[in-house]
Design brief:
675 residues, alpha+beta, Jelly Rolls, 4 domains, six-stranded antiparallel sheet, elongated
Length: 675
């Protein structure tokens, strides 16, 4: 479901609205997110008590936004998406400019109402508009069962925002369970960072953490906290102190209070439920507030009510929370960076989209027995200008999650190349003396994003992102931010033939050509099939011949006169010579003599036969010829190799420069149909 909205064309808000208005203002019904169980759950089954209703069927005077959108408008319903609603509440409380980009305020149930609303989310390096109708799931047609505004039940921006986010990921159930920083990133395009507070040696000093919180607040970073679930039971478990395990909270404000020579560093926190508060020191009715005057309480923003918002000291937050989740809108605000210098503003930015593909580039982390596969992972060169004294570099690896229910552990390594080392994809037999493992993202984790800040010396580096286990498929986004001049490119092999060592005619092929072709002088695909199949039997002792489709491909890849459909004796001999080379290369990697090779080794096999193949092209080859098992048989190898040569020659024929070719529709179809 997710990718449909990234790729859909011509169905934006303006187009849909114009269509509805042309029909006399009929109310919109979203065909991609229907008002039924399929939009609620993965398996599409729901209680009969759930009835979909439009806001005008629930209240007499619905509004999209009541005067202003605030974090008090956001309350969680029966869906386990506290992480998303906490993210929305934090943005509403701290950055109205960001909120207006995600939630366009120019929408209403008044004049021009057609039951259509729009929202914007950042989806892996671009903003995506998501449109929804306003039919919402209710309990027996009366009360909303998911996100809502309990204090102002006639306001619906929260419920519709939540629906749009559910549509983005496929259904409401798809957003049940998650992390606040993922929601932050989806609503800002920022860079996420985590502070782990679960282990004693990882817990930050409260005073240092308050400084980090203060400085990141000043740079418009978004902050949330989470308490991990440590015991079996319900989704969220209430603790004696009023907090909940398995729950996420918004961090909405800081305050520094000094009384009697003592400084109290306070953090304002909000429960997205709109109720359920901390009952310890500095809670709403605690004795500590008696130290403050009424005016001081007003300045701090103390509200004594069970509305889900409360204050606590940063010391208590460190003691009770498992994790702090940040999303920074600029790399300057990464916590380690803020602690050093708040003046850096200009960053060199490189963004790459790539994928771990089974059989091509899903190499895993290199643990035994899959060490060799590690070097199949995508690789990216980072060149830091030698004229500088080093650079702060932020590397962010973001997994593109098509299915949020599937968790993949991700991470990355950074190798420095020694002077004089070749600038090409690193491989298993790369000279170890040329590599230095410089930095790592640490333990692999199932978080969607891994972001680390490094200090790197001038030089050439290679970044290798990977999943923990080999064969795990996913797309990813790699973002590199450097404070000084850099040159970053994907490391890959070009596609095309390598230099040939010449030809060696074979008398058997000559005799077979004479027998099957005779006075015609030119061989068609049927002749080539007979010649090559018999040569294979006589010279290799293999009775299985070549298919007609393979022989057609071999012919077209060697048809130097272009589209004649027949070739002469010299060309047939060359085809046979190519097959001999290809067979030897294939056999070198068919170590178990199974008649097939592992597709992870294809690039090395292609190099043996004189071809260089980029990872992007290799992905298509494996998808077409490798199958689900990641193995390729010899004839498929021959077919892929011949087609690769033919298509490359066709490209070179039409290329107006070294990297682009221009064809009209007829030229394209004529070329591809022949090849």
């Amino acid at each position: 479901m997710f990718y449909r909205y990234l790729e859909e064309e011509g169905r934006d808000y303006k187009t849909l609205r114009a269509e509805l208005e042309s029909r006399g203002g009929s109310l919109y019904e979203d065909p991609d997110f229907p008002a039924n169980a399929r939009s609620l759950y993965y398996k599409g089954t729901a209680s009969l008590d759930i009835v979909w209703r439009r806001p005008k069927e629930l209240v007499s005077n619905p509004v999209f936004i009541n005067e202003s959108a605030t974090h008090y408008d956001v309350q969680q319903g029966e869906l386990g998406d506290c992480w998303f609603l906490a993210g929305a509440a934090t943005i509403a409380a701290t950055n109205q400019r960001l909120l207006r980009r995600v939630v366009p305020f120019d929408q209403s149930f008044g004049r021009g109402y057609v039951g259509l609303f729009r929202f914007n989310f950042w989806t892996y390096d671009r903003w995506t508009e998501v449109t929804v109708d306003d039919r919402l799931p209710t309990y027996r047609g009366r009360n909303l069962i998911y996100g809502r505004n309990l204090d102002q039940p006639n306001e619906f921006w929260t419920a519709l925002l939540e629906k749009a986010y559910a549509k983005l990921y496929g259904c409401y159930e798809a957003i049940s369970g998650g992390r606040v920083h993922d929601a932050f990133v989806d609503m800002t395009g920022g860079i996420s960072e985590l502070i782990d507070m679960t282990e004693k040696d990882k817990k930050p000093n409260p005073d240092n953490l308050y400084t980090i919180l203060s400085r990141t607040f000043n740079m418009n970073s978004l902050i949330a906290g989470a308490i991990f679930k440590t015991r079996a039971g319900p989704r969220e478990i209430k603790l004696p102190n009023g907090l909940y395990e398995g729950h996420a909270y918004s961090i909405t404000k800081l305050a520094l209070i000094e009384r009697g020579g003592v400084k109290y560093k306070l953090v304002r926190i909000r429960n997205p439920w709109g109720k359920g508060e901390w009952n310890g020191a500095w809670s709403d009715r605690s004795s500590q507030w008696r130290m403050l005057s009424t005016e001081d309480k007003r300045k701090v923003g103390l509200v004594v009510d069970n509305e889900g918002e409360f204050w606590m000291t940063v010391h208590d937050m460190v003691a009770n929370f498992s994790e702090m989740e940040f999303t920074h809108l600029i790399p300057d605000a990464l916590t380690a960076e803020v602690a050093v210098d708040m003046k850096k503003k200009q960053w060199e930015t490189s963004i790459f989209k790539d994928a771990w593909v089974r059989g091509v580039s899903a190499g895993g982390c290199g643990n035994p027995p899959y060490q060799a596969l590690y070097w199949k992972n995508p690789q990216f060169r980072l060149h830091l200008d030698p004229d500088t004294n080093g650079s702060t570099v932020v590397v962010s690896l973001l997994e593109v999650q098509k299915d949020r229910s599937k968790k993949i552990n991700i991470g990355f390594d950074i190798y420095q190349l020694r002077p004089g080392a070749r600038e090409e994809p690193l491989r298993e037999n790369y000279e170890r003396s040329a590599l230095i493992l410089k930095k790592s993202s640490g333990l692999y984790s199932a978080y969607r994003e891994k972001t680390i800040r490094f200090e790197l010396d001038p030089g050439k580096y290679v970044i290798i992102p990977s999943t923990f286990k080999p064969y795990a498929e996913s797309e990813f986004l790699l973002r590199i931010f450097a404070e000084k001049k850099t040159d970053s490119v994907p490391l890959d092999s070009p596609t095309g033939p390598l230099e040939s060592d010449g030809e060696d005619p074979n008398d058997v092929v000559f005799k077979l050509f004479t027998r099957y072709v005779g006075n015609k002088g030119l061989a068609d695909p049927y002749d080539i099939r007979d010649i090559l199949s018999e040569a294979k039997k006589k010279l290799w002792g293999q009775s299985d011949g070549f298919s007609l489709e393979t022989c057609r491909s071999l012919l077209t890849s060697n048809d130097m006169k272009r589209k004649e459909g027949v070739v002469d004796l010299v060309t047939v001999k060359k085809i046979w010579d190519d097959l001999k080379v290809w067979k030897e290369a294939f056999r070198a990697f068919d170590r178990d003599k199974s008649g097939s090779i592992d597709t992870y080794e294809l690039n090395e096999v292609y190099k043996l036969i004189g071809l260089s193949v980029s990872r992007r092209v290799l992905k298509s080859i494996v998808r077409r010829y490798g199958g689900r098992v990641g193995r390729m048989e010899f004839e498929d190898f021959v077919l892929s190799s011949s087609r690769l040569v033919a298509m490359y020659r066709a490209f070179k024929f039409f290329a107006d420069s070294g990297s682009k070719a221009t064809l009209d529709a007829n030229e394209w179809l004529e070329t591809t149909m022949y090849q």
